Predict the structure.
Amino acid sequence: MSRWILDVENLSARYGRVEALVGFSLRVAHGEIATVVGANGAGKSTLLHSILGAVSPTSGKVVFAGAEVTRWPIHQRIEAGLVLVPEGRRILVSMTIEENLLLGAHMRQDTATVRREIDDIYDRFPNLAQRRTQNAACLSGGEQQMLALGRAMLAKPRLLMMDEPSLGLSPLFVTRLFELIRDYNSKGLSVLLVEQNTANALKIAHQATVLELGRVAMQGDAAAIAGSSRLQEAYLGGSAVEAAEVGHVRKSIGRR
Ligand SMILES: Nc1ncnc2c1ncn2[C@@H]1O[C@H](COP(=O)(O)OP(=O)(O)OP(=O)(O)O)[C@@H](O)[C@H]1O
Ligand SMILES: [Mg+2]
């Protein structure tokens, strides 16, 4: 078995004359959290959509779990375990919380296991459990993000891709969300996390890529990138205090 759950090679994508991704490469090892950080318009969503098959790359290839999936339709990639929690969560607010969760499992036949997994999600998210029969519209933004994560987990991802999950969440929910991602990862889930929230993403990631205008500006060990002066100047406002805080948190959670 290949060491990589995901191997993106030299991928380019464009919208008309806009080059959104240029010669992008990234490898994610099994069991790893990889983050791609970058500003508005850097090409983060385009990258995830190209991996999922919602955007057709103009060149390059995507290899997932050893199979080249570059020309596969989206549903086949999802069935293979490539699951995306999209930007803005996209839960269905006119359906109940339980119906939203069941949607994540719609391709599965193992109803007894699905039931157990839904109950496990309710254990993790008591706010969802209490309101399982209510419309998802009643949830706060943070709770909706938890629901979107739960729904994605029911699709049995082998690689979970998340597009800016922390956007618009309170600091408390961001912390809770990132703890959950880390917890799923510690049980073996591989994660590709796209974020503008650079400091938080670098705290939980093993490896990081900084994307600038569709191109890789930096790539490597997350701790090394968090500590680099170039990143601090560009994304952390040059704040030595914040950089020190990232280092401290990483140490306290056992990351170098
Ligand atoms: N459907 C589209 N049609 C035309 N241009 C697009 C389209 N989607 C994205 N773009 C352009 O492609 C570039 C990359 O956009 P993308 O949405 O991938 O960036 P992003 O890093 O996800 O940004 P954000 O942080 O704002 O979500 C931008 O210049 C954007 O304007
Ligand atoms: Mg985006």
Summary: Residues 15, 18, 20, 38, 40-46, 87, 196 surround adenosine-5'-triphosphate (ligand 1) (CB under 6 Å). The chain has a mean pLDDT of 91. DSSP finds eleven helices and ten strands in the chain.
